[in-house]
C-alpha cells in the first residue's frame, strides 16, 4: 500500500491594525481580539493544511489611510520573500482604508500567488467567495 502524500502546509500570516494607541496598553486589546478571531479561523482550516506563521504583524496606533506602517511593510517583505501563502485579516479596513492602496496590496498578493482572507469572506483574485464561518 502506498502511503498518503503529506499535505502541503499553507503558511498563514495574520495582520492586525488599530488606528489609535488608546487601549493598547490593556492586557487584552483590539489587536488581540482581531488576532484571536483570525487564529480561530486558521485553526478551522487545519485539515486543509493551514498553519499560522510565528511572526505577528500588528500595527497599533497607525492609520489605514496609507501603507506607511511597520508591520505591514514587514508582511509585504515576507510575502515578496515567499514566506507567506495566505494573509488573514479581521476586516478589510484593517488592511487599508484607501482603494488605491488596496489595489497596490492586491497587486503584491497576485504577483506572489498569495490569497487573503477577510475573517468572514475569502478573497481569491478579483471576486469574493462566501466561506463557512469558523
Helix content: 25-40%
**Rounded average pLDDT:** 84
Low-pLDDT segments, ≥5 res: 122-134
Query: What percent strand?
Result: 15-25%
The span between the termini is 35 Å
CATH superfamily: Resolvase, N-terminal catalytic domain
Q: Fill in the CATH topology.
A: Rossmann fold
**Count of distinct structural domains:** 1
What is the CATH domain class? Alpha Beta
What is the number of E strands? 7
Label the structural class: alpha/beta
* Major sheet size, sense and barrel closure: 7 strands, mixed
Using the 3D structure, state the CATH architecture.
3-Layer(aba) Sandwich
Domain Resolvase/invertase-type recombinase catalytic: 11-134
Pfam families: Resolvase (PF00239)
Protein name: Resolvase/invertase-type recombinase catalytic domain-containing protein
Organism: Magnetospirillum moscoviense
Amino acid at each position: 500500500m502506498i502511503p498518503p502524500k503529506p499535505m502541503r502546509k499553507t503558511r498563514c500570516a495574520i495582520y492586525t491594525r488599530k488606528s489609535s494607541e488608546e487601549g493598547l496598553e490593556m492586557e487584552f486589546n483590539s489587536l488581540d481580539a482581531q488576532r484571536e478571531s483570525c487564529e480561530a479561523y486558521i485553526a478551522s482550516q487545519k485539515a486543509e493544511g493551514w498553519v499560522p506563521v510565528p511572526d505577528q504583524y500588528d500595527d497599533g496606533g497607525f492609520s489605514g489611510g496609507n501603507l506607511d506602517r511597520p508591520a505591514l511593510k514587514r508582511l509585504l517583505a515576507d510575502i515578496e520573500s515567499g514566506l507567506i501563502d495566505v494573509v488573514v485579516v479581521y476586516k478589510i479596513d484593517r488592511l487599508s482604508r484607501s482603494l488605491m492602496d488596496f489595489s497596490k496590496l492586491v497587486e503584491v498578493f497576485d504577483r506572489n500567488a498569495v490569497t487573503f482572507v477577510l475573517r468572514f469572506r475569502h478573497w481569491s483574485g478579483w471576486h469574493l467567495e462566501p466561506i463557512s464561518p469558523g
